[in-house]
From TrEMBL:
InterPro entries the record matches: HTH_LacI (IPR000843), LacI/GalR-like_sensor (IPR046335), Lambda_DNA-bd_dom_sf (IPR010982), Peripla_BP_I (IPR028082)
PROSITE patterns: HTH_LACI_2
Organism: Flagellimonas hymeniacidonis
Protein name: LacI family transcriptional regulator
Keyword Magnesium: no
Pfam family membership, one: Peripla_BP_3
Keyword list, A-Z: DNA-binding, Transcription, Transcription regulation
Positions of the HTH lacI-type domain: 2-56
Amino acid sequence: MAGIKEIAKITGLSLATVSRVFNDSTLVSPKTKEKVLKAAQELDYQPNIMAAALRSGKSKIIGVIVPEVNNFFFSGIINGIEKMVSDSGYNIIIAQSHESQEKENEALNSFLKLKVEGILLSISKETSDLSQIQKIIKSKLPIVFFDRVPNLKNINSVMLDDYMGAFMATNHLLDQQCKHLIHIVGDTKVSIFKERQKGFNDAIAKRNDKNLKGESITLSSNLKEDIGLIKKLLKDKPNIDGIFAYGDEIGLHVLNLLKELNIQVPKQIKLIGFGNADFSNLTQPKISTIDQECTQMGEQAASILLKTLKDKSASLKTKVLSPRLVVRDSTQ
């Protein structure tokens, strides 16, 4: 495989000059840079990024950790991050925690070994011990949290107003004359799902109507068991006329269950999800939902990190995005 020695030989330049080109040094003229890059292309030379990082102390790499890549919401965030980072000169490495604090810490340690210059992180459901995160913050390595944010002061973060999103979803069901509402709750150990439950409860309470009834059902991590719980609830309480699901995916499973039980949506039960996943606009009926602005969240998180990398003295930022109600057939 060709190396910088071959490039130096072809161009007639010194090894030091060729090396400066790949280290993006300002000491190299545009003409020389063009000459070296042309030779590198002809030789199909690929610079060793990690070796360059060890020499310069700058990897030009940003580490991103999400709970699950195949989740619509997090894939949308990654899309936003890539969109913002693409022209910055930085590359990104993506890791998954799979909702495990142990795997999250392993990813953080790997990033440190790779000498990443910044980290974008959405913490896992299991994350309760924040000691590893606190060590990174104290080390002054730039880190920006998004969506699921640890309960720490003086951090950079981007999140959705989950409380308001749930409040809007519940109010929409109430505006459609629903009287007996069910909230299918996510894991309340995770702050965003706890906020959504508060939003649901407060929307009903603020109506100050004794004829309204709101109940919550907390699911396990076993989908088959969860569907069984919802099925039993629907049979035991035939007056249910509105369902707010904590996410579009569980909303889709509920929609299929209602069809199985010959319960008409939205005539008998109105259904709203959370997330605005692509498939929510493809079902029959199409599912009303709350848009989490996932791409915007990724863009904002990356933007804050890039500004911090450019100016380490930049002030800390907490950005709270506004949710958006998307009304479709399942509630009309």
